[in-house]
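Second attempt. The first submission of SDR family oxidoreductase had a stray character pasted in from the spreadsheet, which I only caught after the job came back as garbage. Lesson logged: always re-copy from the clean sequence file. Corrected sequence (252 aa) follows.
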Amino acid sequence: MPTPSLFDLDGRVACVTGASSGLGRAAAAMLAAAGAKVVGVARRQDALHEWRHETHGETAALAADLGDRAGLDRIAQSVTVLFGPPDILINAAGINMRQAADAVTPDGWDLTLHLNLTVPFFLAQAFAGAMKDKGWGRIVNFASLQSRRAFPGGIAYGASKGGIEQLTRAMAEAWSPHGINANALAPGFFPTELTGPVFSDPDLADRNARQTCIGRNGELSDLEGPLLFLCSKASDYVTGQVLFVDGGFTAK
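This time the job returned cleanly.
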């Protein structure tokens, strides 16, 4: 029978990118409530301050631009200074420019691939050494319905999220022998800033809800259990997997 210690994060240090809003903010709040010391990373200092004010637990905020490729090592070092090297990395930051294939620009493509695919790898690489030394680590990437399905206006975003699915498997192959488990969550439709255009259209939101097996769109609390599982001892023998938290959207 499962015991509370399977899901206990006391003594763990977590780094969550995209912690200022949406799924990243929800993830950061949940990990803090579960006992982890959480460093939230995002561009907006004011939003990070609001997150810390509303969150129960030990937290710290790092306002940083993940779009600055040259600054990633500095960001990783700054995270480590706050509570020590992270045991858990949640790569929740991302961008979806929703450009049609014929309208995609080189700059838009590069920014999307950088934030959604490059940043998760190089942050994980920066923290993997300390996780190896401890013999324990958890990396959770954010995949998407578009990791496997093509949506209108999603060619760059879909390419990045398809890459996340394979990146997650490759991370597991490289680092799981050292005690570092790498998995990904693939959310369905949840109300966030990123999905604002979807939920601003009631007919579209309703159509997406009817596409699920459960019959509704996601609520942020629906991610708490799956994420806690992937970040805790409960998932000791789970790595290289993509868990779709989509109400059965991809099952139909």
